Amino acid sequence: MTTQTLRDRVSSILDHSGVREGALHHETSGVHLLRHMSPTGQGATVYRPLLCLILQGAKEVGTSAKTLPVRAGQSLIVSHTLPVLSRITEAAPEAPYVALVFPLDLDLVRSLAPKAVPPTDTRASDAFSIHCAETDDGITDALDRYLEQCETDAALRLLAPITAREIHARLLLGPHGDTLCRLLWHESTASRISQATQDIKAHLSRTIIVKELARSVGMSSSAFFEQFKAVTGTSPLQYQKDLRLLHARDALRTSGAKVSEIAFAVGYESPAQFSREYSRKFGHSPRHERKALAVG
């Protein structure tokens, strides 16, 4: 199985769905498919645990502190919920950027992990929760079969769940295995940081006290701060700020709430401060976001 074969299948699905450019949520498979005809500016979003395979073109993804380039034939694993900055760096009408995003089922990974043999080298020694590697043919083949099986009802019911399980197993056995296992090991640092990120998400408007957050996951304040930054690429306060702003952007786009109400809901004490930080993050004010949406 070659990357080109899977790329052709993804392109065919996008064509059939009428999506020349942009993103498609393929409902039967749960996979997101993307195609862009030109490079993009930097965008901010939240990545949840996922596998992203670049089939053509290239992109950059990371945080304000660390960026990774990802090119065709490579894939990245995101092991934590993470606010990220990304941009497509290589795309053209004759060779568009094409990518596939497969969401990870962490419960399934947990059930398979004890049977996986932990890798013995240091290929994933970096604690950062975004890990890039060359994509092996086994993963590419399994993803292609999975998409094909999701096209018919019988195969969707009988074969697709088996292949989805295979994809997760291959990830554990391949170059992304260390990254996933670090997240799952109960006493690992990455697992503790994962608990902390979940707590921040669950109480987004609450002021963070790093000492208390560190104590809740059984770490000293200094070790917690150092490891949190190593895993997420940012500090706990910046992580919360990024999540707040992304959550606010979604609310501006999907609700009729006032800008001030949204600011208070995500934890800002001052609408003016919210507006300043929103403009710094996205390049325009919250009110401009609303106006642009209304015009569109």
Per-chain topology:
Layout: H1 3-16, E1 22-26, E2 31-36, E3 43-47, E4 50-56, E5 58-62, E6 67-71, E7 74-78, E8 82-90, E9 97-103, H2 106-112, E10 130-134, H3 137-149, H4 153-158, H5 160-173, H6 177-184, H7 189-202, H8 210-216, H9 221-232, H10 236-254, H11 259-265, H12 271-282, H13 286-295
Antiparallel strand pairs: 1-2, 2-9, 3-8, 4-7, 4-9, 5-6, 5-8, 7-10
Helix pairs in contact: 1-3, 3-5, 5-6, 8-9
Explain what you see.
There is one protein chain. The protein has 296 residues and is an alpha+beta fold. The protein has two domains: 3-184, Jelly Rolls, CATH 2.60.120; 187-296, Orthogonal Bundle (Arc Repressor Mutant, subunit A). The chain has 13 helices and ten strands. β1 (22-26) and β2 form a beta hairpin. The longest helix is centred in the C-terminal third of the chain and has 19 residues, at 236-254. The protein is globular and about 50 Å long.
Notable characteristics:
single chain; 296 residues; alpha+beta; Jelly Rolls; Arc Repressor Mutant, subunit A; 4-stranded antiparallel beta sheet; 48% helix; 20% strand; globular
